[in-house]
Design brief:
The complex is a heterodimer of chains A (about 300) and B (about 280). By secondary structure, chain A is mainly alpha-helical. Chain A has eleven helices and two strands; from the N terminus they run ααααββααααααα. The longest helix of chain B is centred in the middle third of the chain and has 18 residues. Classes of the chains: A mainly alpha (about 300), B alpha/beta (about 280). Chains A and B meet through helix 6 and helix 7 of A and helix 2, helix 3 and helix 5 of B.
């Protein structure tokens, strides 16, 4: 057994899993506060990556500055999407809103194809060292950055929801829009904020993935990968999203290992998470951390 | 009835219609500043619908609502909380998984100025001072309602009587000038009712809030309120001082279920409207 490869893959699994985790958190954030399943989550990720890349490549900005601008851009983008696309749909059936996000996803994909082209572009070298060695393992610097950013984002999420005024307002709105409104919470602004946070964090994930893999429109696959992650963890649990993301990341890489070393079936990497998803849903239909929907009268 | 004391809220000719169903027809009454106004009536008479019109959940089909001389129909639900209208709900509506303290803090939302970013400049931005002020205010409410011992418990795990108190605490947290109480005593035992009555009296006297209450317990209504209106089939069938209202012929019959011309007529109209 090739234990070095196994460890390498496990480390990759954790790092990629954390990225899935933060995108999944964004997904859960929108679902929790607005009951909308956002099918454009993957496009948000790609958008972040393209914006950052084009600022580095065509405007020649230093990476960190481009990164900050990307954050600002994605915040504005999230708010605009909420105001233009979703606010007019308030009061419409949730399914219509979900269809609108599918439309948004198609629109964004076409727009990005048009503006940025459909070939993959690499980031110029933004780090002085492309590989760092941690405890004898070679890890790409981008991966380390990704891990640090993921943990930071998760920490911010936790602090925000636990201690901040708007975090509290968001939790309250997720629980009941009607009661929150009667307590003076402007729920329109809460929704806009949920979309903004979701867009920014997805953008961060996009930049990081872009650093490792090169940027292309196919990066939106992460929006698909997020589904098993979110469903494993439970649609309405932020912690579940992180755990689900890690689970999927590790599973992919373990499947890759088992397949590459013993089975030689090929492509287990992308299929295995969905098998596990099916099994988990058979045992726990609301996911590992989700709340069963019980109505008490 | 408007001659003694300033009017805080005036309900003027309000009707509310859901398709063919008239939930309220031409309801008018006025709540005096500092008063305790009770809305009574049989189940389904439209009492909660009336409250929902005031808090903004429903928009009346016709009629006017005047708050301090200003029309409030154009204000959104959350704006009305800012104006000073707070409410509790008939079926408990706490944020079940959040702690008692967090539940109350949600009510403070609109009073806070600092946000996540300025809060990071804890001392510079005045966030520290604000935090202390808010804490003191919330602590006062907690002390007043005697819920210190459960402050960190998730609200969903508390007993019914305590949850009612936490809900009252949350409504008080927005510092309302008018507080709408939807059946504050429902489902309580005698001891809990006495406590709640004590709190309601203090809301008026110590916190100087005006109260509009829906309640079925006649003893409580008679003891606490200084004005009563009776709704039946969406119409006000009597209003005025508690004793006078209780003595009213129609009211007795509405409650005892006896035959009465006025009520029969109302029921007929309601049936015809549905048909």
């Amino acid at each position: 057994m090739n234990s070095e490869l196994l460890i390498q893959l496990l480390v990759n699994g954790v790092i990629v899993g954390m990225l899935y985790g933060i995108v999944a958190m964004c997904f859960v954030l929108i679902y929790k506060s607005t009951q909308v399943v956002n099918f454009a989550q993957g496009e948000f990720v790609v958008m972040g990556a393209w914006v950052c890349l084009s600022m580095v490549v065509s405007m020649g900005l230093p990476f960190w500055l481009a990164f900050l601008f990307t954050l600002a851009f994605m915040t504005a983008f999230g708010v605009v999407v909420q105001i233009i696309l979703l606010r007019p749909l308030v009061g419409e059936p949730v399914i219509s809103v979900i269809m609108a996000t599918i439309g948004l996803s198609t629109f964004m994909r076409a727009l990005m194809n048009w503006i940025f082209g459909n070939s993959a572009v690499r980031f110029p070298d933004v780090f002085s060292q492309s590989v760092v060695s941690i405890a004898g393992l070679n890890v790409e610097t981008a991966y380390v950055l990704s891990l640090v950013l993921s943990v930071a984002v998760m920490g911010m999420f936790f602090l925000f929801f636990r201690y901040s005024r708007w975090g509290l307002a968001m939790r309250a709105t997720a629980y009941s829009q009607q009661i929150s409104q009667s307590l003076g919470i402007p729920i329109g602004r809460v929704f806009a904020m949920a979309w903004a946070i979701s867009a920014v964090v997805s953008g961060i994930a996009g930049v990081v993935i872009g650093l490792v893999n090169a940027v292309s429109n196919s990066l939106s696959f992460i929006g698909i990968k997020v589904f098993p992650a979110v469903i494993v963890g439970g649609l309405d649990s932020v912690i579940g999203a992180v755990v689900g993301g890690l689970t999927i990341g590790l599973l992919e890489n373990l499947a890759e290992f088992v397949d590459g070393q013993y089975l030689h079936i090929g492509n287990m990497y992308s299929v295995a998470p969905f098998y596990v998803l099916l099994v988990i849903l058979m045992i726990k239909p609301y996911g590992l951390f989700g709340t069963p929907n019980i109505e008490r009268v | 009835m408007a001659d003694n004391g300033e009017i805080l809220l005036r309900v003027d000719d309000v009707s509310l219609q859901f398709g063919g169903l008239k939930a309220l027809s031409n309801v008018s009454f006025a709540v005096r500043k500092g008063g305790l106004f009770s809305l009574i009536g049989p189940n389904g008479a439209g009492k909660t619908s009336m409250l929902n019109c005031i808090s903004g959940r429903y928009r009346p089909t016709s009629g006017n609502l005047t708050w301090n001389g200003e029309d409030i129909l154009r204000h959104s639900v959350n704006d009305r909380a800012h104006l000073g209208i707070g409410r509790t709900f008939q079926n408990l509506a706490l944020f079940g998984h959040m702690s008692v303290l967090d539940n109350i803090l949600v009510g403070r939302h609109h009073k806070l100025r600092n946000n996540f970013l300025t809060g990071m400049l804890y001392w510079v931005g005045g966030a520290r001072r604000e935090e202390l002020e808010q804490r003191r205010f919330v602590e006062d409410i907690i002390d007043f309602l005697e819920i210190q011992h459960v402050r960190h418990e998730p609200a969903g795990t508390l007993s019914y009587g305590l949850r009612k108190r936490v809900e009252l605490a949350r409504a008080m947290a927005i510092e309302p000038r008018l507080i709408l109480l939807d059946e504050p005593m429902a489902g309580m035992n005698l001891e809990e009712k006495e406590d709640m009555a004590r709190f309601i009296i203090a809301l008026r006297e110590e916190f100087e809030m005006t109260i509009l209450m829906i309640e079925h317990d006649m003893g409580v209504v008679m003891d606490l309120s200084d004005q009563v209106a009776v709704l039946d089939f969406g119409k006000v069938i009597a209003s005025g001082a508690p004793e006078a209202v209780l003595a009213n012929e129609h009211v007795k019959k509405a409650y005892l279920g006896e035959a009465d011309e006025l009520l029969d007529e109302l029921a007929d109209t309601a049936e015809r409207a549905i048909a």
